[in-house]
Each structure stands twice: as structure tokens, then as C-alpha cells.
Design a protein that fits this description.
By secondary structure, this protein is of the alpha/beta class. It is built from 9 helices and 11 strands. The protein has a single domain, classed as Spore Coat Polysaccharide Biosynthesis Protein SpsA, Chain A (Alpha-Beta Complex), CATH 3.90.550.10. A 5-stranded mixed sheet has the order 3-2-1-4-9, sandwiched between helices. A 4-stranded mixed sheet has the order 5-11-7-8. Strands 6-10 form a two-stranded parallel ribbon.
Length: 252
């Protein structure tokens, strides 16, 4: 089985290092894992290109682990539906997990997920959704902006990353599986056979800039959501446009 993790990175290069470290550190009888990172050119410090190059080199030494890059020019990166359409079109995986770039996964996350996708969920055609643990916002902001972010030479692999952040203060457990954009898992063959191989239909209304209308359209297209219980996944909390009153463009 092959699972593709599809994310977008704009100003989140430090958190991307945490996410990719957690994928590198998966254990057990894990499936093939592909990480597809979409990004605009020359964004951030380090740039996403530099982060991907660093982790692609590490992936070479791990069987069944691959990092793909989807370069997105112009304003298309602002529209999640457009970006995810491209990632889906390029996927050769059995299942695709559309996720946010600020998520970190427990070491046995993908082993457990693969067992469920070849077991009780093997015939599921709805959008699969899962809960997450969201970590304390101020702690995360200070860690990445003032502490670790200002002292560590990124890009880098974070040692024992899931165990490290498991001890961080928590904001809340998100237990109501509403199918949010941080975890939308779908069967690729079903998407191609029955839904035109699309995440977002081009004749549907576009997302507003940095909006998530396409997530709701995706869930409705698949007939709603089905909840799946996963091993822990952690949200590295951060600044939000709605709180700052503007689109945030700071290195995170």
C-alpha cells in the first residue's frame, strides 16, 4: 500500500521540518509513504526548496519513503482547491491524505493507518476524518519565533520529534471529527473513477484567498465524512490572519 501526504508550505518552513522529521521517524510495518509539498518559489528562510532538498537526501536512505515537490507559480498557491487538484493528478498512491503542514505524527501513525485502510476502511468511499491534539498557541509561537527558531540552523531533522512535542503544553483536543483541512483522507481510485479525479471542481465557486471553501465541497462530493481513530497527531499552533487582522507573512 502507498499513502501520499499532500501539504502546502508558505512561510511555514520551520514547522515543515518538524512534520518531515516525524515522517522520517515512522517505525514498524509502515506502508510506502510519499510526501508531496506544494509551494511558491523562493519563499521563506530557509526556502521550501532548501528544506525539500535536505529531506530528499535523507529519504534516499529509507526504503519506501519519497518526497515530491509541486512548484506553484503566481496566485494559485492561495487557492487550496487548485493546488490539491494538481497534487491529486500527480499521485500514484492508493490513498491520499490532504493535510496541513503544521501537523506532526506519532512514530506508529502510518503503520496503524495502513492497517485500518487494508482492514475495516478498505471499501470506504467517504472522506475520512480524524481528531488531533492542538498545542498551546503562545508556547508554539515563542518556540518557533524566539527560541528554537532563532538558534537552530534550519533546515534540520528534529530528533525524536513526536516524543519531544508530546510533552508540550496543550491548547485543546479536537475530538469532534468535522473533516477539517488538516486531515482529509480519500481513496484515490474512487476519486478518479467517480469524481473526475478532482479535489475541487473548476466550475464550483473558488476559494477566497487563503480560504477553505473547497474543503467543504470535497466532503460533500464524497458523500460526507467517516471518522477514523488514528494514533496521535499534533498541531503546532501559530498566528492566524483573523487574529492579526491581516494576512500573516512571517517565518514560521
Amino acid at each position: 500500500m502507498k499513502i501520499e501526504l499532500a501539504v502546502s508550505c508558505v512561510w511555514f518552513q520551520r514547522r515543515l521540518c518538524f512534520q518531515l522529521s516525524s515522517v522520517l521517524q515512522q517505525i514498524g510495518d509502515r506502508p510506502e509513504i510519499v510526501v508531496n509539498v506544494a509551494y511558491p518559489p523562493q519563499n521563506g528562510s530557509p526556502t521550501t526548496e532548501e528544506v525539500c532538498s535536505y529531506f530528499s537526501n535523507l529519504c534516499r536512505f529509507q526504503t519506501g519513503l519519497q518526497l515530491k515537490e509541486t512548484m506553484v507559480e503566481g496566485d494559485d498557491i492561495k487557492f487550496r482547491g487548485i493546488v490539491r487538484n494538481r497534487q491529486l493528478a500527480e499521485s500514484d498512491a492508493d490513498w491520499i491524505l490532504f493535510a496541513d503542514v503544521d501537523m506532526v505524527y506519532a512514530p506508529d501513525f502510518f503503520e496503524d493507518l495502513a492497517k485500518q485502510l487494508t482492514g475495516p476502511f478498505k471499501d470506504e468511499t467517504r472522506c475520512l476524518s480524524a481528531s488531533r491534539t492542538s498545542l498551546a498557541k503562545d508556547f508554539c509561537k515563542d518556540f518557533f519565533n524566539k527560541g528554537h527558531g532563532s538558534t537552530v540552523p534550519y533546515p534540520c531533522e528534529i530528533a525524536d520529534v513526536a516524543q519531544t512535542i508530546a510533552d508540550w503544553p496543550r491548547y485543546k483536543e479536537r475530538t469532534r471529527n468535522v473533516g477539517a483541512g488538516y486531515f482529509q483522507l480519500a481513496n484515490v481510485q474512487n476519486l478518479r473513477n467517480n469524481h473526475g479525479g478532482l479535489y475541487w471542481k473548476p466550475d464550483a465557486r473558488r476559494d477566497p484567498s487563503w480560504g477553505y471553501r473547497s474543503d467543504r465541497q470535497f466532503r460533500r462530493m464524497l458523500g460526507g465524512i467517516s471518522s477514523i481513530e488514528t494514533k496521535p497527531q499534533y498541531h503546532l499552533n501559530h498566528e492566524r490572519d483573523s487574529e492579526e487582522g491581516q494576512h500573516v507573512e512571517v517565518q514560521r
